[in-house]
Amino acid sequence: MQPLRVSPSEIAVHRGPATPLRDPAPSRLRYKLGRLWLTPGFRKLMQFGLPAFVALALTGWYVANPDNRAAITAQVDETRRSIETRPEFMVKLMAVEGASPVLADTVRKLLPVDFPISSFDLDLEAMQDRIAALDVVETVNIVIRPGGVMEVNVTERAPVLVWRRVGALELIDATGHRVATLVDRAARPDLPLIAGWRANNAVGEALAILAAAAHLGPRLRGLVRVGERRWDMVLADGPTIMLPETAPVLALSQVLALDAAQDLLARDLTHVDMRDPRRPTLRLSRSAMARLTPTSFESPSHE
User: What is the rounded distance in angstroms from the CA atom of residue 5 to the CA atom of residue 75?
Assistant: First the structure.
């Protein structure tokens, strides 16, 4: 029976050559890299910044090729055009609202659009500016309605006076803005007449005077602006009423009161001067002056 004890030499033979124990401590480089990875900024840079940089570099390399750029542009244009020409974006007709037939025809001539057309190809702002340049147009708004209808909403200026200026007759609105040129005064006999240099700058005052003299009816021929300061009222069968610079309506009401009481405007007068309302002056006609002026005097007899 063999002994159970083994000598150290025998144990060494069975174990083989001795290996050195591994040091569990990290190396200096691995330690520094581990500490660097624990830094939040470095970790975000590696997670997001580096992939983004690589993606940008690859994109720049791809776009640097002219053929690639042309292919991208063509694809984008084709995609955009396919979207713009979809049926829901197509405009099939134009409707002009709020305009007279003449103005509606003018608007259509100013906007020569070939329908159907994509709404993306319409410059609505430029079209509105073109229509707003017309004197007769006060406001304009262009919208695209469902169903492919381009609706042009126009508000026309309403003429309230005929302005006789040098070489022309103009229709003007309540603000003094020109509406249209009038060929003949007889074309708008329903509108009062004003005349004079820059008379359109005092339309508000002229309308107030005309309203105060409304009961004169067809006797009132119109108003004449004098020196850009005041008005003369011209009557068809009566004197010219010279109104003051300030409070012309009040001065006119005094004249009309005298006319109602004493038939002033039916007398043989050429002018009723109210430029100074405190001292109204009447100018007689030549026939009235002749009747008032004696033509001969009797000489006294001498005994």
Answer: 88
